[in-house]
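Researcher: Hi, I'm a grad student and pretty new to this. My advisor asked me to get structures for two proteins we've been looking at. I'm not sure of the right format, so I'll just paste the first sequence and hope you can take it from there.
Model: That works fine. Here's the first sequence with its structure tokens right after it:
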Amino acid sequence: RLNLREQLIKELEIIPLEVVCRNVAAGSLSQRFGLPEGQALPRSIIEFYLKDDKLGDPMVTEEHITAFNWASTQEIDDMMALTLRVNDFLTGTFGAVGITLVDFKVEFGRLWENDFARVILADEISPDSCRLWDTQTNEKLDKDRFRRDLGDVIESYTEVARRLGIMKEMPTVIQGGLH
């Protein structure tokens, strides 16, 4: 970040994986293992999915990742360590404002410096890439509102921003749009 309005963006070689970190059973994890949605997991679980819309972003193992040369063992370790650091930070940040971080998805890329590449985060973190639930009520404050036809997504995203102190008050709707 250079200042409040600018950030430096670097070109990366994207690693073709989505990395999902799960803290609470929900979504496909609940479906695959028959876990009740909302059950706390014994520890954070990291899963890898191949970024391929035509194939439906299939889940892959570390064996697949190294066999097909999508990432090295060291890069997998780096992605897992970075994902857990992000998880620790986000869990604390959201927990402090009464939001449970259920799970999130991130992507990584290689930043080349001469002949050496290091793995860095190459993705946004937003309610579109996280499952966020109100800690008291388990009300969904994320994209699941859209996926499950639960109501206004913008209102939920605004509530997350308000709790984080990014937005001071709810915008008012005046003829012609949001203000």
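Researcher: Oh nice, that was easy. Here's the second one.
Model: And its structure:
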Amino acid sequence: MPRRYLILAICCMSLLIISLDVTIVNIALPAIRTELGASVSGLQWTIDAYTLVLASLLVLAGSTADRVGRRRVFQIGLALFTIGSLLCSVAPNLQTLIAFRMLQAIGGSMLNPVAMSIITNTFTEPRERARAIGVWGAVTGFSMALGPLAGGVLVHAFGWRSIFWINVPVGIAAFLLAWRFIPESRADHPRRLDPVGQVLVLVVLAATTYGIIEGPNAGWTSPQTWGCFLLGMAALAGLLWWEPRRTEPLIELRFFRSVPFSGATLIAVCAFAALGGFLFLNTLYLQEERGLSALHAGLYTLPMALTTVIASPLSGRLVAARGTRLPLTIAGSAMALGMLPLTVSTATSPAWQLMAGYVLFGLGFGMVNTPITNTAVSGMPRAQAGVAAAIASTSRQVGSALGVAIIGAVVASSVSGDAGWWILVALGLAVLALGRFSTGRWARATADSVYEEKVPA
């Protein structure tokens, strides 16, 4: 096996445990709710405390890796994620579980963007890189396939704490293999740290998500809820004012003048909001409304995950051969159509109705990941590949956090369950519209002008 494919395999191991963690934790939410006495908002924080910290630190991790060494940061992330997983398995209450999930997230923030940076600097030929990113996307699908099934088996046999054990051997193996086979690399001109920008990003994400999650309990018109939203808006305004005045900002705002890059970012937010919201709502639907066990709930979602496994490498081939427009069109259409059968689902709906929706949604999600990543890493210089990949990864985590927060707020507000599914349909349609808008000739021209402005010929 060529060394570069071994490096790809090691990087994919980190993605495996990160993606696996999401689906496994979702399938275990009812068991956590029962043992720890968690409310709906408590379950949301079990997911969103992780995704918020992850999203807040991804760009910092990417730029730090470009500066101090990608392999070094990658290994530190593996160590922290593995330790955090062990601590989650012994958490005595919901508060400590959430805290240990945040430690996991600190480690996780050093994995995906840094691994993508390593891959981007290993596979330099565009077609080969697109195929490598397709494999990367297929690992996401594989982890989705394995996660519900493994989570169901573990929760059924050993309890919810066992879901964190599976990360440990994979994390240790990836750490040792990275030390042995991945060469150290750095950017020629790494970016300076931007602590003010980092704090502002954290405040934007934390305040907005806190307002959405706690809104049903505190009241949507309460001073607490409005205060959170106003704080988030003020931090966002501060970020937009501060970043352009930095020589090397945390977030390179000028790249958002590229319509394909901005489109890919918004598509990632919508697609992963749909995924995060779907996993959260579907878990509660299968286990609490239909009365399925964790194992059976995992088996029900297996067709969706298997379809994602098949669609992800196909998406990589389509991107390499035809560009990003076709896979994004398929993605948005399939995600929206897949949620339609669930808008009319009840506790007694036939299994085939659910399976049809799951398969279509899996096809759509499998198609969306590679175009997002390829657009992001192709739209920036390879020297800042860590920052490019981190922005793409941040948009995914922001979307996932918002999806869980919004769908959870719908559930906690006792709104009709159909409303949650219709929100997911709308997100699929948003992926379709943004995909069509951001891939035309005019959109590509804006990308060329921005790239030439940053990297003169």
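Researcher: Is there anything I should tell my advisor about the second?
Model: You could mention this: DSSP finds 18 helices and no strands in the chain.
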